[in-house]
Design goal:
- The chain is mainly alpha-helical and 162 residues long.
- The chain contains 2 helices and 2 strands.
- The mean pLDDT is 83.
């Protein structure tokens, strides 16, 4: 076995000497290295997904459906503050004007109720003054009757004596 390993080593050594050192070939293309931008174009098939996305939902409103008047294109690049979607505001404007009208009507009813209350208060004040006057007049009539009765009683007594 040692002889076999020794034979293999001699064979390898002979093969290396026969080929000898190789001369370098000058046929290899070379270039000078320069710093610059590297442009790469990659053509692949696949699906792109946004790294950050948000679900857009319509605001809750009382009754009725919202109509979209503008919607940004799917996949469009957007920045903060860009308009993504817009709803038709006509129904909300109508409801706002209707509510304002109802508010003005309620304000007018309050003003009328206050004026009516002031009229009733004035009428009550006049009625109270008239009632006090009537009470005082009745008191004076009672005193007058007592005085007239005393005078008539004295006259009757003088007539009886005389």
């Amino acid at each position: 076995m040692v002889a076999l390993v020794l034979c293999a080593a001699i064979g390898v050594l002979a093969a290396v000497r026969r080929t000898g050192p190789r001369a370098r070939s000058t046929d290899v293309p070379t270039t000078v290295v320069q710093r610059g931008d590297l442009e790469m174009k990659v053509f692949v098939k696949g699906e792109l997904r946004a790294s950050h996305s948000q679900m857009l939902a319509a605001p809750p409103i009382g009754g009725g459906a919202l109509q979209l008047t503008y919607l940004a294109h799917t996949g469009a690049v957007v920045k903060k503050g860009d308009l993504l979607m817009e709803f038709d505001p006509s129904e909300q404007r109508y409801k706002l004007e209707q509510s304002r009208s109802e508010l003005l009507q309620a304000d007018q009813e309050i003003i009328k109720a206050k004026a009516d209350a002031a009229v009733v208060a004035s009428q009550d004040k006049v009625a109270l003054l008239k009632a006090r006057f009537d009470v005082r007049r009745a008191q004076l009539d009672v005193q007058k009757n007592e005085l007239v009765s005393a005078i008539d009683g004295r006259k009757n007594q003088l007539a009886l004596e005389g």
